[in-house]
Specification:
- The protein is 50% helix and 14% strand.
- Helix 9 packs across helix 11.
- The protein contains 21 helices and twelve strands.
- The strands form three sheets. Strands 1, 2, 3, 6, 11 and 12 form a six-stranded mixed beta sheet that branches. The chain has a four-stranded mixed beta sheet with strand order 8-9-7-10. Strands 4-5 form a two-stranded antiparallel ribbon.
- It starts with a helix and ends with a helix.
- With 436 residues, the protein is of the alpha/beta class.
Amino acid sequence: MPRSARAAVAAVALLVLGACTVVTPGAADPTLGDLRGRTLHVIATWSGAEQDNFRAVLDEFERRTHATVQYTSGGTDLAVLLNSQIAGGRPPHIAFIPQPGVVAELARRGVLVPLRGAAADAVRRNYSQTWQDLGTVDGQLYGLYFKVANKSVIWYRADAFEEAGVTPPSTWDDLLEVSRTLVEAGITPMATGGADGWVLTDWFENAYLRIAGPERYDALARHEIPWTDPTVVQTLTLLADYWRTPRYVYGGAAGAAQATFTQAVAEVFGSRPSCAMLFEGDFVAAEIHALDRVTVGEDARFFPWPSIGGSPSAVVVAGDQAVALRDTPETHALMTFLASPEAAQIMASRGGFLSVNRNLDPAYYPDDTTRALAAAVTDAPLLRFDLSDLTPQAFGGGTSAHMWVLLQNFLADGMSPVEVAQRLEDAASRDFKDNG
């Protein structure tokens, strides 16, 4: 059966499943319970199209349980909003938190409610041990990863590659050769949205995982080795050599530090493109979809982050982890539903979403590109979570976090790799100590 037909059948199956769940207008899903009269409060970072898509999931939960769900977008200030609500004694029932380090902090403060019963069973049934472990703090399951991101993707403009006569590289040396050839063809190779510090942390993490390997990656995330370690300096040197090579990065290093992520997308895939490539995650596809005359999978394609020094295939991931903050029947019911393939199906069919729910049929994804991005996460032989998100919030978890700011300074100001490594170590020493 063609994929388009499979997707159509899958969409019909979801409607049939929903229709069969409620036998009569007054009935509720027996698995989730009748929650009429109860209201849940949910917060996450999502806004715009992502919020609309997630609202469809909440609408389905409301239909099945007769509960009311109120959603608030915290945007980039989610941690501030959440801490304010906790301090005021009115935490949300459920929060979606991008940083495992923040989840661990809240769990050890006794703020979170462990998953149990049907919710815990659903997580164990639908998620691999790797993702269960990522939702576990000190041996206790607290969270489930509803939405994830593949952050080891380099997007490229197909016509630019064709004009220069190059093909997607598989190694770092190949990437350097492709970049040189693009420059010779009069095309700027790379757009870098350095004004958003998280873009630069993603550059570092992908390079570091391949240069240092998974064990040192884990050790650095826990600050068990210093940021002055030779592998850190080697990684920063590799990045500096690329960023500072004339004409490799749009606007030069200083200009790249002023461009936002969305501006970088437009520099590659906008109506007047100026670059051939852009490094960032699968979610770039959602930004591309909003542009005129650009089709993901045709005009806009991707290749995995290249191997460095013979390193094996690897994927850096991020994700929004749902955690419970109120111990109520409606909280556990919604966590149970979020862990189900049915909830993932609703988001997957709308695009701009990857799931690691192993019982989600890939046919629900809207196109082959999304299926390939999802498979790269699901099937990765070596997978690590975003390193900055594993660290204390002051170091790696937000706009003013030290890792974000120092890498922005490194890009813009021409600091030496040794100097920025020392500054990173100084900040980590303070931040990890303050975090206990």
